[in-house]
Amino acid sequence: MAESHPFRRAAEAKDLELLREALAEDVVLHSPILFRGFEGREVVVAVLSHVVEVFEDFTYVDELAEANRVVLRFRARVGDRELEGIDYLELGADGRVAELTVFVRPYSALTAFNERMKERLAAAPPAAE
Fold first, then answer.
1. Is a pLDDT exceeding 70 seen at residue 2?
2. Which of 30, 50, 55, 90 registers the highest number of CB atoms within 10 A of its CB?
3. Model-level pTM?
4. Cα 23 vs. chain centroid, distance in angstroms?
5. Would the CA dihedral through 97, 21, 76, 48 be positive or negative?
6. Which residues, 6+ apart, have CB-to-CB distance to 77 below 8 Å?
7. Which helix (H) or strand (E) holds 67?
8. Please, which pLDDT band fits residue 116 given cuts at 50, 70 and 90?
9. pLDDT one-digit tens code per residue, 87-102
10. Do 18 and 36 contact (CB within 8 A), yes or no?
C-alpha cells in the first residue's frame, strides 16, 4: 500500500501544523451538521482543532485513494456514543486537500458531537480580524 496522505497522518497525530500543510489555502470543509461550508485554511484548521479534542479514541480503519480523491473511514467516541464516519478528500493539483466532506453516523453520536462542538465554539475567543 502506498504511503497514507499527509492529512491522515496529521489527524492521527493531532498535529495541527502538519494538518495546516496538508490543506490548500482556499480549502472548503463540508461539515456533517451545517449546510454551508467552512472556507479557508485558517478557519478549517480552527474548526478541526476542536474536532480532534471532541473525538475520543479516534482511529482510521480504512483508506482508499485514487487520482485526486482519498476516502478515509474512521471510528471514534463522543462521551458514551460510538461513531463512525468518512473523511472524503478532494485534492488539488499540488496534492493538498481542496475540499473535505465529513460524514458521520449514527444520528445519536452526531447529535452528541454537535452539542460538544457548540460548547467548545461558544467558549472560544472570537477570531482576530
1. no
2. 55
3. 0.87
4. 11
5. negative
6. 55, 56, 57, 83
7. none
8. confident
9. 999 999 999 999 999 9
10. no
pLDDT given at position 35 = 76
| 127 has a pLDDT exceeding 80 | no
CA distance 56 to 42: 23
Nearest Cα to Cα of residue 104 among 116, 121, 87: 87
Q: What is 68-126 written as a DSSP string? A: TEEEEEEEEEETTEEEEEEEEEEE-TTSSEEEEEEEEE-HHHHHHHHHHHHHHHHHSPP
| Per-domain boundaries in the chain | 6-119
Distance in angstroms (rounded) separating the CA atoms of residues 52 and 59: 11
Reported as type and span, the H/E element at residue 14 is none
Nearest Cα neighbor of 117 from 38, 50, 49, 31 is 50
Which single residue is written with the C-alpha cell 490543506? 23
Q: Say if domain 6-119 classifies as CATH 3.10.450.50.
A: yes
